[in-house]
């Protein structure tokens, strides 16, 4: 029987965004070019030629946006820092205007009673660092620590919740191996080096944040879909093992002190991704990566069924999704997967806390004649995934909060503006915002601190 199930009293209810996807103002006030500026300005890279030049114009409209968050009753807001606004040369001279923007945003959030959660890197790397190799180069990992220090010194008195990187697997693999995200390379060896330097820079950044932000919670955010072999055939099981190694264990094992998984080292070697072995791993690196953190953030959207097929262009197992319920971006709706990944991760690594740092659905439902956005499918998606969070908590998982992706319709990377994940409708021509029905539902859910489950 369905009944209202309440969450723990201190459960953190939030929504998430990232800098390039919402801010716009791509060259304002001393900001330099990011890899996403370069990529989206290159014809043919992003659907419809869309760019984040203006996006939701949040850089100028943040007071209005905070008022909407307050109206929704959000307890927390997760946003990211545009590195090229802070350190236009990637390192060195600080751009005060960029730093002041985030400082004002943090003050505005706190005045509205909303806890800021800062993600330091959500993919918009300064182009000037990419010209040195991006995270494939160890020097970018060093520059990231500089960014961390500058930002956490400035905001650390008020921000008490930090994430180092968002979805390092997506940045490394989609950007450097598969060519669909900035910088658009198809270079597996570079992608492998990139994963290591992302992890390493995370480990180096953790003590810096702790020093500058007393009492802060610090962690990393990973993309974790629910993977299953499409069948129990040995070939599909093998494809599943490969995929889990590459996309998940390659990150979680080192973060929790187990080093890089040997089977995935062998897979990457066979793929040609490690032409010189693990030569990029220096003494002390693995200990730094395993620096204890306060939580792991999970971005969960869908289930992926893994089938053994080797597409020529990638030479990788392909993931096939089969369901009659898909979101507009083609991802399967599979709420039970969220309880399973939370439970499996906790049982495997025993982290002190978990947060769902992203979860949401792309549905393009436009405003109706009455001016409202009746996006029932998003409400249903969120309700079922929150019920899945409940089940994980009941099973003993220390799940401490949930951030809906996303606060706004925004720039969905290579998909441009067609895919709308927002709780808030954005008319990109006029910048009008409308709270969708799902936002009103989420607001009531926060007020009740519970869902029907
Ligand atoms: O929009 C992205 C976000 O930037 C990272 N996680 C997945 C979202 C939906 O694709």
Give an overview in words.
The chain has 453 residues and is of the alpha/beta class. The chain has a single domain, classed as TIM Barrel (Alpha-Beta Barrel), CATH 3.20.20.80. The strands form four sheets. Strands 2-3-4-5-6-8-11-12 form an eight-stranded parallel β-barrel, surrounded by six helices. Helix 3 runs parallel beside helix 5, helix 7 runs parallel beside helix 9 and helix 14 packs parallel to helix 15.
CATH fold-level label: TIM Barrel
CATH architecture: Alpha-Beta Barrel
Which segments are poorly predicted (pLDDT under 50) over 5 or more consecutive residues?
none
Number of strands: 15
Percent range for β-strand residues: 15-25%
- State the domain count: 1
Globally, the shape reads globular
What structural class is derived from the secondary structure elements?
A: alpha/beta
SSE map:
Elements: E1 4-6, E2 12-16, H1 19-22, H2 35-40, H3 58-72, E3 76-80, H4 83-86, H5 96-111, E4 115-121, H6 127-130, H7 138-155, E5 161-166, H8 168-177, H9 188-212, E6 217-223, E7 226-229, H10 234-255, H11 262-271, H12 285-289, E8 295-299, E9 303-307, E10 318-320, H13 336-349, E11 354-358, H14 376-394, E12 399-405, E13 424-426, E14 433-435, H15 437-448, E15 450-452
Parallel strand pairs: 2-3, 2-12, 3-4, 4-5, 5-6, 6-8, 7-9, 8-11, 11-12
Antiparallel strand pairs: 1-15, 9-10, 13-14
Helix pairs in contact: 3-5, 7-9, 8-9, 10-11, 13-14, 14-15
